[in-house]
């Protein structure tokens, strides 16, 4: 495979939220875009988050007012962009007087309510736990309540990549960038020659601008693959989460204060579970192999048990996940205090071939980061269109009225669909659900039943339209059904996928 003749405006390395957002923004401005990811979309940091779109209340303590203001405003923007995968959520902070005085929390919440434009999200208020049936320990008598949002993080990435592709971008997974070098296109311009490798073999592309959105590998990519000096260092901060049986009723999350001044979230998850996290721990190992430690497990269990009546032990843990946040090194001694803001570094030689590297960032501000990235490269593309992403919706949000209305439409059209299944479909696909339901009038017409509401037509759609290759791609990052599937059921799905890929390969060869 040789694509030496293809010259893209922008090549983006890294298929996490930042790379996906930049690719979508660039494609929508009329640029030709290539996006590659060495594994699956969102298979590292971007699927190991706390699943929140939030302003970052605790960042106010570190005086990161610009970041908080931007993140608060983005909550409202993203709610409109993807109402099927992003939902308002109320957060309760139990008051622990020995940790933070009430006046300090009230001041922080005042800023939280007013720093960013708030249109649909409710403001903060006091909560008297003695007046309600509280899941918290009896000695915790009052607290504070405020608004943020929950998100399906991996689907947010996939939807941005889908949007990029629909706007003309070339997007490929399981394609590793082996390196890149500046070469002379003509007497006036240098470009990037980029070496790529996938299972079928190695090939090349060319690009006028190279964007390094490799996340945890951003500095390594510059130093080892480009043989250049990285303008900034990177701090890898490990964050781990526990998934346990539902700790309490209702759809509100809790933000738990700890003696070390950190906070831990307890968040309703997938209707059956509670998600507890995250930790902040310096990580020095291979980002491909990050795993929760015994120390982190104990820390998160202690945080929960210090606050809730229901006491947890290790045997209650259903699943765990860990990731590393690639934060720009600001030389802070405390991992929790390392800035969550992003830094974009642009470098070029005399005759062009710019390199734009992304250091840091967070899920909530990915769209603003992408806009900033386009601002950095605008001088190289004078015909580039204007900013557009703030008022556009992501795939599945087209003609989306409400989750309840769409779920009712699905159940009216397809007999045998439970309320739970309809809700899962709506929260994953929005109005794109009709792409795989097609003409089916009954669940029995959706093909092979793999269990837990997963049918062949959904699987085929995920392979055809969302780059799914393996059972892990589908169960962990596309549907979140991995918590329901047994090892045997997962194996059956993988076998189906292998046969499907073989048939497609034979058809392509013919």
From TrEMBL:
Keyword tags = FAD, Flavoprotein, Oxidoreductase
Requisite cofactors:
FAD
Keyword presence, Nuclease: no
A single cellular component GO annotation: glycerol-3-phosphate dehydrogenase (FAD) complex
Q: Which GO terms describe its biological process?
A: glycerol-3-phosphate catabolic process
Outline the extent of the FAD dependent oxidoreductase domain: 9-366
Q: Which family does it belong to?
A: Belongs to the FAD-dependent glycerol-3-phosphate dehydrogenase family.
Name this protein carries in UniProt: Glycerol-3-phosphate dehydrogenase
